[in-house]
Structure formats: structure tokens, C-alpha cells
Amino acid sequence: METAYLFPTYLSLLTLCLCPSRAATSEAEALMRWKSSLSSSASLKSWSVNNISNHCRWIGIHCNDEGSISGVDLPFADLAGTLDLFHFTALLNLTTFNLIGNYLNGSVPAAIGNLTSLIHLDLSNNQFSCAIPPEIVRLIKLRFLSSFSDNESSGELPSEIGLLTGLKYLYLSNNSFSGSIPPEIGNLQNLMGLDLSTNNFSGPIPSTIGNLTNMWSLDISSNKQNGPIHPPLGILQIWSTYISLPTN
After folding, report:
1. Angle at the Cα of 48 (from 43 to 51), degrees rounded to 5?
2. What single-letter DSSP state applies at residue 160?
3. What single string gives the DSSP state of each residue in 47-102?
């Protein structure tokens, strides 16, 4: 008799294990809505409402052990459109968001600041034309930020960038960023790579760059800086792999 009671319970637990959670299904549905907004998405054939229970096997999608989407990794996937209908608040477990080398345009929505688990963010080599959304400073777990390299981005680099103290790589080259390089960049003492080249930054190079003693690659060339280069020679010798500074 006891076995008879346990058997239905066992089947219920097995069903729960085999079926994706409602939360995970909602994540997949959010991605489907974004796909439908794109003008080019032929590479996303596996993203289908008929295959939604297998969303962890969709191209470019990674899931954690609970079946929640933890990575969107779609480099050079010939995607065209915007991020306007990307439902960031439905994908709060993302640790990787990589859309490098597509044809995405418009602005980067402020809602990206909700992805507080994000470690790797790369939106470079697209056609975004916007300033860096200030909400990006909420992404305190970021280690790699190349969201705006080789786009059409403009505006100033916000001083709040200095709050992202876990960053190891910050790449913002080949845009139209202007204004001065904020001295708060010297707070990013875990930086190993910094590329602000080919922009319209002006004014003196902040002396706080000398605080970045873990740096192995630095490029701030092809800007409009003037005045002396402040970091002492001893610090520059620590950056022994690659250095490209403005010449005055």
C-alpha cells in the first residue's frame, strides 16, 4: 500500500525534472519576441516555438544547471535590427552577452543595467549610435566590456565608469566619444587592457592612469589630447607588452 502512494509522487517529481520551468520558458519566449523584431535572423533557425522546451540547445544559447539562460553568444551571426525589444528584465541570469560583428543599430537600452550578473559584454563591430547608457555602471560583476568598439557611439565617457572596479578589459575604440578621459578611470586597478583609441577625447591624459599597474595593453592614440603624459616612466615600464600613446 505504501508503494502505491509513493509511485504517483515519484512520477510527479520525474515530470518536474524533465520539463523546463515556467521561468525558463518565459526566458525563451522573450528571446523569440526579440528574434521576431529583427530584419535579419536566418542564423536563428533553431529558435522556434516548436522547439521551446529545448531552448538550451538553441544556437548561441547557454544555460546554467537549473535550465535558466546564462549566455547569449552570437558573434558574426548576420543579425540586423535593434535591441529595442530585447527583454533584458526577463534574462536576469545572463553572465555573457556577446553580439560582436552583427548589423545591430539604434541605441543600447537603459534596461541593460538590469543584467547585474553579467561578466562579459561585447556589442562591438555593430552600428550602434548612442552614448554609453549610465545604467551600465550597475554591472558591477563585469570583467570584459567591449560594448561600443567599432560602432558609431558618441558622447562622453561617464565618470561613473570608475565604479566598475572588477573590469579587466575595457575597449571603446573607433567611435566618436569626446570630452576628457575621466580621472576615475584610475580606479580600475584590475585593468589589463585599455583601448580608447580613434575617438575625439581631448584635454590632458589623467595622471591617475599611472595607478593601473596591472596593465599589459594600453592604446589611447588617435585622439585630441594635449599636454604632458603624466604616468611616470617606471609605471610605463610595467606596461611592457603594448603601449600606444598620443604624440604631441
Report:
1. 125
2. G
3. --GGGGGGGGGSTTEEE-TTS-EEEEE-TT---EE-STT--GGG-TT-SEEE-TTS
Q: How many residues does the chain have?
A: 248
Whether this prediction's pTM lies above 0.70 is answered by: yes
Q: Taking residues 177-193, report their average pLDDT.
A: 94
Residue 244 DSSP symbol: E
User: Is CATH 3.80.10.10 correct for 2-244?
Assistant: yes
Q: How far apart are CA 191 and CA 217, in angstroms?
A: 9
Asked if the model's pLDDT at residue 8 lies above 50, the reply is no
Q: 35: part of which helix (H) or strand (E)?
A: helix 22-37
Residue 231, judged by CB atoms within 10 A of its CB (0-12, 13-18, 19+), counts as buried
Residues 126, 174: Cα–Cα separation, whole Å: 11
Listed range (6-10, 82-86, 96-100) with the worst mean pLDDT: 6-10
Backbone angles phi, psi at 191, to 5 degrees: -60, 135
Which grid coordinates are listed for 221? 592614440
Nearest one of 186, 248, 177, 176 to 218, comparing CA atoms: 186
H-type helices in 104-232, by residue range?
none
Chain center to CA of 141: 11
Q: Which residues neighbour 192 within 8 Å (Cβ) at sequence distance 6 or greater?
A: 168, 169, 214, 215, 216, 217
Say if residue 45 is exposed, middle or buried (CB neighbours under 10 Å; 0-12, 13-18, 19+): exposed
Distances (CA, A) of 24 to 71, 97, 184: 13, 17, 39
Grid cell, residue 209, equals: 592612469
